[in-house]
Amino acid sequence: MLAIGYGQSVGLPDSLIGGFRSFGSLCGILGAIFYAYFDQLMGVRKTGVFGLTFQQIFLLLAISSIFMPGSPTDLRGYFDSLIADKSWSDFKDSFAPVSTIAPENSTDTGSFVFV
């Protein structure tokens, strides 16, 4: 569902998203059929190693596509704006006790403070 929402947010037509979903379903069915074939051909252990290797290859391709140019993930911009001193002070401030003193121009209603 996350991929469908992302596809719709970037403006992909519903027919293309449906085509990708159909292709994914077909690949799942073919994977189940080919598993039985490879199990008879190579045995359970070799089939498992083959499937795991195949899966990891495509996982690495998918992860590398996240960081390719043109992707919405901009790590260079993130690390360029990252300042260690500011990050450390923000981290320390997140553990500071919260002040319970109400500002002068507020109305105290017990547990809630309205400004």
UniProtKB/TrEMBL annotation:
It is found in: Membrane. One of its GO terms (molecular function) is iron ion transmembrane transporter activity. The chain crosses the membrane at residues 20-38, 50-68. It is a multi-pass membrane protein. Its main location: membrane. GO terms for cellular component: membrane. Keywords: Ion transport, Membrane, Transmembrane, Transmembrane helix, Transport. Pfam families: FPN1. Belongs to the ferroportin (FP) (TC 2.A.100) family. SLC40A subfamily. May be involved in iron transport and iron homeostasis. This is Solute carrier family 40 member. It comes from Mesorhabditis belari.
